[in-house]
Specification:
single chain, about 270 residues, alpha/beta, Spore Coat Polysaccharide Biosynthesis Protein SpsA, Chain A, 2 domains, nine-stranded mixed β-sheet, 7 helices, about 40% helix
Length: about 270
């Protein structure tokens, strides 16, 4: 008598990048605990991030030789064993509603790419009406994803045969604790401005104060007015303003610091 064998259940790896995230990594990893595997690549934390992650069962690798976000994501990818991989940042939390959608997507065994919406939390306030970016590709069948490229705003590269794979968007939002303090925003301002300038210098682009003002003003109007940042009060203003400052200083540095730009800007 032949007995049918139940098909193997598809598995999920959640990948996380960290550096000095002790104050929030537990909440992040707790929200990812439903995954079959959590792979965490740390960039040389000097706080308790690594100890907390190990205590919570994550597979932790330490790579303090910072070469950019893409390199760190590729290190996660190299260690992942799940059929699917979801990339989660340390300042993000998967809500129960999003967890249900992710689990359903994994069960479907579909060859596809899934995008996420953010619900931004800035300076202790959730910007509930802010229209966040919805084109962030975060979940893939692992065998479709070749690598990531780029030091900042890194891009997933799919195998040639998979480039036209279906794209789906999760309806539930991913909580993104984007900016918790003004001090942290100032530190991020330096990193993202200089990395963005280096990326544009490598592409042969030109900078300058006027270009920076135009870029910063355009992004501020888009975020604060058209994406409803103004509905978030003071927190909404600061969130949009710091992003606009990054755009301005990116082009200012591209002109005035061009000979000193480097992609080696640590986290």
């Amino acid at each position: 008598m032949n007995e049918s064998v139940a098909p193997r259940r598809p598995t999920l790896t959640i990948g996380v990048l960290t550096k000095n995230e002790a104050h929030r990594i537990a909440a992040c990893l707790q929200s990812a605990a439903f995954a079959d595997e959590i792979v965490l690549v740390d960039s040389g934390s000097t706080d308790d991030t690594v100890a907390i992650a190990q205590r919570m069962g994550a597979k932790v690798l330490i790579h303090a030789d910072w070469q950019g976000f893409a390199v760190q994501r590729n290190r996660v990818l190299a260690q992942a064993t799940g059929d699917y991989i979801f990339f989660l940042d340390a300042d993000e939390i998967i809500t129960p509603a999003l967890q249900a959608e992710v689990e359903a997507a994994v069960r479907s065994n579909a060859r596809a790419v899934w995008k996420i919406h953010w619900s931004v939390v800035a300076y202790g306030h959730e910007l509930k009406h802010f229209l966040s970016q919805s084109s962030l590709e975060r979940m893939f069948r692992r065998d479709m994803l070749v690598e990531y490229r780029g030091v900042v705003h890194e891009e997933p590269i799919l195998a040639d045969a998979e480039k036209n794979a279906p794209r789906h968007v999760f309806h539930a939002k991913l909580l993104h604790y984007s900016r918790e303090t003004v001090r942290g925003s100032l530190e991020k301002l330096t990193q993202y401005s200089m990395l963005g300038a280096a990326k544009r210098a490598a592409a042969g682009k030109q900078g300058g104060v006027l270009r920076g003002l135009a870029s910063g003003l355009a992004i501020f109007i888009r975020l604060y007015i058209f994406r409803l940042g103004f509905t978030g009060g003071g927190a909404g203003f600061l969130f949009c303003f710091f992003i606009a400052l990054e755009c301005f200083f990116r082009y200012a540095a591209l002109h005035y610091d061009r000979g000193f730009l480097s992609e080696d800007v640590g986290r």
